[in-house]
Amino acid sequence: MTTRLFLGCGAFGRRLVEGLEERPGSLLVLTDEDSRVTSLREDGIHAEAMAVEDPEAVRARAGEVDTVVVAGDDPERNRRLAAVASEAYPDAFVLGYVGDHAAPADRAALDGLVDRTVDLGKSVSDSLAGSIDESGYRTRRLQRVLRRLDGPLAVVTHDNPDPDAIASAVALERLAERAGVESEVCYYGAISHQENRAFVNLLDFRLTNLDPDADLSRFGSVALVDHSRPGVNDGLPPETDVALVLDHHPPREPVEARFVDLRSNVGATSTLLTDYLRRLELEPNEELATGLLFGIRVDTNDFAREVCVEDFEAASYLLEFANVDTLAKVESPSMSPETLDTIGSAIDNRVVEADVLVSCVGSAPDRDALAQAADKLLDLEDVTTTFVFGYTDEMVYASARARGTDIDLGETLREAFDQVGSAGGHADMAGAQLPIGMLVDPEDEEPFEAVREVVAERFFETLELRPTRRSPDAFDDGRYAGPESGPRPEGHLGTDGR
């Protein structure tokens, strides 16, 4: 398969070919100028002479092609070759150079035929090489998959979405719109964290809250954002056919979709979506830029946690379009009395071993408050790790934080609780979701007291901080040994514990 095909090759095209020759992937130049072919071959570039305005002949000669570049000198001829490229390769990424001394009408005509138009008055060859080299492959793939989707597209965040998930989903909605696909940002659960509610309301993001039994047949395709498996950390059926997955969390199992972008080296999924917007020269509006910037700041803890160069570059780009006054309002929302009560309970019920703090707040209908309590308790003197949990009638929810320690919370929670529920996250921020029936005997007269002991002791056990009584048989093989037991269910709290 030819990775890159050049149709025509003027002076600008020659410079671009030379810049790409050493990059991964094959390259073929087709032109009807014999002298150009001779010159290119003398420099070791694969070039052939043929009639390049016949789409069938071009396709027969070049075979399957990933990218087509039209880069001759004459604007009118470039327009004709762009039409050839579009007809011969309707699914390929086509980049067209407007030509020398092109008029505005020339650019307008080319815009309707190619995926990206190049005008040297606005671009230079070095930046163009980046759009068609290996680093731009994901962008081309994303565009191609989006164009082929059956709409409307459901862009599904993880349960109880945080700013990174919400902003990333809205950005993917914008990219789908650019590709001509109707889409809708959807989520299960609730947006209860007061900061997250302020985030959605101030930026006026339109989100659809799906009921657990929602009819999904009205959607033609599904995309997952900020998580990677249907039915795990969302309300989708596990067998859902997923078209796209974009996430920055390390996957625990193979991810299946037509397009997958999993980059665990970056601090936020918003960074990935910002990269696509930049590569496609799709400037975000004020609301989207503000949302993506806040998503990066939250998931990197203001660039102090698992941050990389790409996060800083994305934030710097977004700052030009974002509204910093709105950011300030999002960061300073009022705290609900229920959240304050949860934080107070976490402080009152804390147990500290070495520099690790564990606290059970009791009944906890608001899961977001657990994350806020875990954050607040991390500010206590001599505490480097916090683990805060609470429960409803059916489920235990937990949120953990770490700072200045070698503990990997994501791995710790997986080791401690994966046999009976779902757990995971990052090294310094993680969460868990555990069915109560998998932790205690259903006949226990005071099950919640047993839950308090079992969960806290299991966490301490995993960290090897103190000897404890043996935990229930649920931790031996993933099943509770009582008569009502069954296989552990699929389920997952947000991997950042929010």
Let me know the largest β-sheet.
6 strands, parallel
Q: Which CATH C-level class of the largest domain is it?
A: Alpha Beta
Query: Can you name the CATH architecture of the largest domain?
Result: Alpha-Beta Complex
Count the E strands: 18
Strand portion: 15-25%
| Class from secondary-structure proportions | alpha/beta
Rounded mean pLDDT is: 83
Side-by-side strand order of the widest sheet = 3-2-1-4-5-6
Percent helix, as a range, is: 25-40%
Q: What would you call the shape?
A: elongated
**Radius of gyration from the CA trace?**
27 Å
- The CATH homology group name of the largest domain: inorganic pyrophosphatase (n-terminal core)
Give me the number of helical elements: 18
Number of domains: 3
Distance between the termini: 45 Å
Spans of at least 5 consecutive residues whose pLDDT stays below 50 are 122-127, 466-474, 476-498
Write down the CATH topology of the largest domain.
inorganic pyrophosphatase (n-terminal core)
Pfam families: DHH, DHHA1, TrkA_N
Domain DDH: 154-296
GO molecular function, one term: nucleic acid binding
Biased composition (Basic and acidic residues): 466-479, 487-498
What does the secondary structure layout of this molecule look like, with pairings?
Elements: E1 2-7, H1 11-20, E2 27-31, H2 34-42, E3 47-49, H3 55-62, E4 65-70, H4 75-88, E5 93-97, H5 104-111, E6 116-118, H6 125-132, H7 137-148, E7 153-156, H8 163-178, E8 183-187, H9 194-203, E9 208-209, E10 221-225, E11 244-247, E12 259-262, H10 269-279, H11 286-299, H12 309-319, H13 324-331, H14 337-348, E13 350-353, E14 356-363, H15 367-377, E15 385-391, E16 395-402, H16 409-417, E17 422-425, E18 429-435, H17 447-463, H18 474-477
Parallel strand pairs: 1-2, 1-4, 2-3, 4-5, 5-6, 7-8, 7-10, 8-9, 10-11, 11-12, 14-15
Antiparallel strand pairs: 13-14, 15-16, 16-18, 17-18
